[in-house]
Design a protein that fits this description.
about 120 residues; single chain
Length: about 120
């Protein structure tokens, strides 16, 4: 399994945001310091309180309003699924990162979550 950890300012707000997107929460790995967002059977994103996140590193957090350190990319089963997820993110407080990309056999949209982390959502086929 893969557990990407994302620092967040407000764990409760992150929980609500990701729930609004349709993701399940694994309560066994969630508490006041983190929420475990089930993306797939093998990928769970940990939205971790920023202060708690810092207790596990010697580096400072990036200012995600101005700097990007990476992006999470997920492939979905259809263009409609991509649109549904990204539209839900935008309706729940996320912001569009870049314009939609369409090429033969490839469709992609993306958004920044509440804490400025970029999510690339795509369909290939």
């Amino acid at each position: 399994m893969v557990f990407p950890n994302l620092p967040v300012r407000n764990v409760a707000a992150a929980r609500a945001f990701y729930t609004d997107l349709g993701f399940a929460i694994n309560e066994d790995f969630s508490n006041e310091n983190a929420v475990c967002v089930v993306v797939t059977d093998n990928v769970c994103v940990m939205a971790v309180d920023s202060e708690f996140f810092l207790s596990n590193t010697t580096k400072a957090l990036a200012d995600t309003k101005h700097v990007i350190g990476g992006a999470l990319a997920i492939a979905l089963e259809s263009r409609a699924a991509v649109d549904k997820l990204v539209d839900a993110a935008l309706a729940s407080g996320g912001t569009q990162a870049t314009p939609t990309t369409e090429m033969e056999g490839f469709y992609s949209r993306n958004f920044y979550d509440l804490d400025g982390h970029q999510w690339d959502v795509l369909h290939m086929g």
